[in-house]
Amino acid sequence: MPTKYTYTISTDTANAKVDSDKLKKEIQNSTIPVSLNNGPEGQITIGGDILDVWMASLLSITEAIDLDTIVNAHDGVSLALPVEEVRINQEKTKTGGHPQFCTFNVVCDATTGWKVSDPITFPIPINIIRGGFASLDESIGDQIEFSVAADAIVGAITADVTASDTIINVSSTVIDNIQVGFWAKLSGGGNDDDLGRVKTIDSSAGTITVETAAVNAFSAASPTYVKMTAKFVPLITIPGGNLWVPLNGGEGSSYIPAGTVLNARYNNITATAKTFIFLLEYFY
To answer: Which helix (H) or strand (E) holds 269?
Structure first.
């Protein structure tokens, strides 16, 4: 018949607290052959400072000592992660964790070429979770990009750059801000060279290695600025089909500091008048 074993939580447990689910698992995973009670009395009951453990039958002296040892070692720490620890899997740099949506509208007239949405900034930090857009048949072959901090100046070169260079000496502010996978650009002396994505960053040497070699020569004395762009959507050709295209990068998110400029660009190759809408979901 069910047998109750009573303990005082404040003195008989390791941290003067009990997590019922964890204690059940500790008992079930022990060498005690008697199982926890499955009757109406319950298994683990707590009332104030009193803990009752209900076993399916009377324990032997050795088994009762084993149960005492389990209860004495029980730390009361929950097996379940707090909400903020679950959310941290999506937010490396945490915000308040509140989801919200916004849209970027790109209005296109009946001419070809790139059209840009009005820039959007947030007065508070956000974490981008995912985005999406409607892929309409009228837009088949058109292209879209979604950028964060487009062509933001993050520093300057610290040594002259010659044509064909892919290893660029840069200031510490570039090292501190740019990341592998971001797009880099050199701007100076009337030239703007798109260097493609950053492949590696050597903080000790103060250099970045890029995927596209410089076309022009640049002088460190000019000065020559280093610009960066983080592209949430680098370049997508719209497939059509009159369907919704979700853009989900996985379980992670992208942290965006307050005041950072975000915008969408649309290449109206089909040369028809339209309004393109890009939806963004984020935490704030």
So the answer is: none
Cα separation, 169 vs 203, whole angstroms? 10
Integer-rounded Cα radius of gyration of the chain = 30
pLDDT in tens, 169-183: 999 999 999 999 999
- Predicted confidence (pLDDT) per residue in 152-172, tens digit: 999 999 999 999 999 999 999
Residue 69: φ, ψ to 5°: -65, -40
Pairing type for strands 225-237 and 143-156 reads antiparallel
Q: Which two tokens stand for residue 228?
A: 């960066």
Contacts of 66 (CB under 8 A, 6+ apart): 30, 31, 32
Q: pTM here?
A: 0.62
Residue 81 has pLDDT above 90, yes or no: no
Residue among 66, 4, 61, 5 at smallest CA distance from 32:
66
**Per-residue pLDDT tens over the stretch 90-126:** 567 788 888 999 988 899 999 999 998 888 899 999 9
Residue 254's contacts (CB-CB under 8 Å, 6 or more residues apart) are 127, 128, 148, 230, 232
Strand duo 167-169 + 207-210: pairing: antiparallel
Domain ranges of the chain: 3-73, 82-140+238-284, 143-234
pLDDT score for 201: 97
Work out whether strand 262-267 and strand 114-116 pair parallel, antiparallel, or are unpaired.
antiparallel
Q: Is 143-234 assigned to CATH 2.40.30?
A: yes
Neighbours of 18 (CB within 10 A): 20
User: How many CB atoms neighbour CB 30 within 10 A?
Assistant: 13
